[in-house]
Amino acid sequence: MRPLSKPLDILVIAPHQDDAEISVGGTILKSLAQGLRVGIIDLTTGEPTPHGTDELRARETARATEILGVSWRHQLGLPNRKLEASLEARHRLASVFRMTRPKILLAPYWEDSHPDHVSASQLVDAARFWAKLSRSDLLGESFHPPRIFYYWSIHLRIHPQPAFVVDISDVIDRKMDAIRCYESQVITGRSTTHPTGLDDIRDRARYWGWSIERGYGEPFASREEIRIDQLTDLL
User: Fold this and answer.
1) Nearest residue to 46 via CA among 22, 75, 86
2) Residue 198: pLDDT over 90
3) Which of 11, 55, 131, 200 is most open to solvent, judged by the fewest CB atoms within 10 Å of its CB?
């Protein structure tokens, strides 16, 4: 991996291919429309799954990436179903942070019933710290991503309090189009009776939109305080 000529504004860390689209696809689309540089690092291929293959998932990811309009997406190649916040994985992800130098990390929420998502959250936290180390064998120059926010996944029916919710009303249809690209995961072998899995994803976005008096939204958590320069930023 070579260092980017221009740093990313936002880097989404996805445990599996399709997690970025499902969890923060709307935020990605809005950010790109605002002229921000957004990248995605998929930690694993997500395979094996009942109806997928590595080749099929790669094609699905390419189509979804094209719909999102993301120009930088990288596969880290860590093991699906066995993802761990190991020293080797930490080294590889910290090197990605140093080579892309994002201002904001979007990582999985730390509580989830899927072990890979829990490990991914722990891995991002550890790699963020490691990325700033000097006198190391990591790629690139020392760098500490300034902000990290955590997105919700779909495996645990809990309702934590988000720090903020992004209004994605104007891009909800494109978000769903990107998710549909993962046919092997969200359509094949799934119930066609309403509400379907796709209905569930859209309805959750509708709920979070309702919570902020908008059409659709995506929630984020933060362990750190969030600065605003003036109260009108909240209007």
Assistant:
1) 75
2) yes
3) 55
